[in-house]
Each structure stands twice: as structure tokens, then as C-alpha cells.
Amino acid sequence: MKKNKEFKSFIFILLFAAVLNFTAVLNAHSYRAESGIKYYNIRLGNIPKTRSIAIDKLGNVWIGNKYSGTVQEINGQSRRIIRTIFLGKGSKPRALAIDGNGNVWVADKGYASVKEINGATGQVTATVRLVKYSKPKSIAVDGNGNVWTASKNNGTVQEINGQSRRIIRTIFLGKGSKPRALAIDGNGNVWVADKGYGTVQEINRGTGKVISTIYLSKKSHPFSLAIGKSGNVWVANHKTGTVQKISGKTHKILSTTLLPSSAFAHPKSIAIDGSGNIWAADKGNGRIVEINHKNGRIMRSLNVSAFDRPNIIAIDKSGNIWVPNIPGASLIEIVSAAKGPEYFPHIYSASNASYPQWP
Question: Is pLDDT of 19 > 50?
Fold first, then answer.
């Protein structure tokens, strides 16, 4: 009997040690420096396919993991995982946005829904079921606290009341439409990157109607949008390896920047820093490219790794660039490379802005 108890105690100690070791692995990170730039690689454990990222006003990084149905919060200073939130077996979080209260909104492709996570407790506080056949892949919060989401497979953009958590309206963009990204300008209008039509469309916030359409190319596959301080719209084209600048007033294309090694260039995400420059995550070449916002010229290219595939990008208030790495199940921080913080026009222009990412 005594030996049996000793054996059980021994097994418990082994299991406890394994848990501690597993936790240590999850929170481990490595460091390297190259050409004066510091890189940190934060391991996320066996959780591949990180498809979304957002940074809260505390500087903590939130990421959504498509295949594990989880959202993780990482401390921006210690680079350690604070918590992992499981959204369900069939969940596929594809995009994140954070509102003025610090709550995290998740576009869940798997459950055809939008979920709200309390930023303080990590608890799911609301689930909004979207219209039939929705598979949301992008999400944004406007200056009134309302949530916008786009679904590629049914060509719709939906607006959700941030307080009642009810759908206000559903905007159908067309049979061949495949909206892939959203951005909100200083007037509260919603801009849509439409992969299906190869266009960028502007939706009036009041009427919900499309008021302008900018034709790019059907081969361009616009994948990401960002809006600068002057109101110009920047779009990353996945297939053509280009980043284009569109006038927010005249709706004309002002510049087209072809990324280096264009045959392999696949910009999947862009962000604008505090100086107005554009940063593009080039998944095809495993690097981050900085583009001058005035002339569209490439200023520098940071090689993340030959094996890394950066597909999303975010910039914190200290100018640190955060990039999830798909095959490596990790999160890469490029220290003070940008002139932060990341710019969101509806934060600075709306008196009741609901997304004050930085004080």
C-alpha cells in the first residue's frame, strides 16, 4: 500500500514537472540582432496559423489562431503569454479589433459570428450570429463604437451595434464580390478591399451605400488596407506584389510601389506608423518593407528569416513592430524599427472615438 502511494506521488511529480516545462516552452523567447535592429522571437507553443493581431492601450498583443480556435494575450514588455482563450472546437478566429473599453472583438469564420471578449477577464461576453453563409475575415471598430465586419464568401459587409450587439445592417456588394479587408477613415466612412472585383470601395457611414469604386486589377487581389493622416488610402495587392496609394479625395491612384523580388513578393498586410510611412508584411520573401508615404519609394527592407512567412503586421506605441510567423508558431517583435504609434484616423478625428489604442 505504501509503495502504491509512493508510486502515485512520483507520477504526480513527473506530471507537474512536465506541465512546468511545457509552460516554460510556451513562454520562451529568443533574441538576435542584425544591422543594428533587434529581433525577439516569442514561441506560442504548438499553435500554428496565427491569422490576426491587435494591440491594446496597455501595449499587450492579442493574436487569433485559426486552427486551434484560440485567442492569446501576450505581455508587450515581458513577452510572456498572459492567457489563452479557447473559443470552441469549430472556431476559426480570422481578425481582431479592440474597442475603447479594451474589449476584443473577434471575427470567427468557423462559427459565422463575431465574438466580444472582455479585455480584463478574458471571458467571452457576447456572440453575434451573422447572416447566412457568412465567413468573416476582417473586422474594425468605428468612432461610435460600432463594429464592422466583411465576409468574403457572400460578398457582404455588416455593421453591428457595439452596445446592443445587434446587426444594424447588411450591405451586399455584388455576386462576384469578395471583401477581404476593412479600414475606417476620419469621416467614419468604411473602405473595403474587394479581392473578387479587384477594387477598393468606399461606403458612406450614414447611408450604408457604396459612394465610390476604385478599379485596380482583377489580378491584383487586394488583401489589406490602411488610411494615412492626409486621408489617402493604401492597399496591399497580394498577387501583383504591389502597394498602391489612393487619394481619399479624388479617388485616383497616386503611386504604385513594386516590392523587391516581385516574382515572389506577396504583401499580405500593411500598417502606417506615426511618421506616416507604410510597413508591409511580405509573406513571399519573408521580410518587412518600409515605404515612404510621400514618394512611394522603398526606404528599407528587414529580413525576418528565410523560413518565416510574415502575414500580418501591427505597430505598438513604442514603434515596435509585431509580426506573427505562420510556420514557426511564433510571434516576432522587431524593436523600435518604426516611428510609432500605429495611425488610425478615426481615433484622432472623432471626439467620441471608441478605439483610442494609445492615450
Answer: no
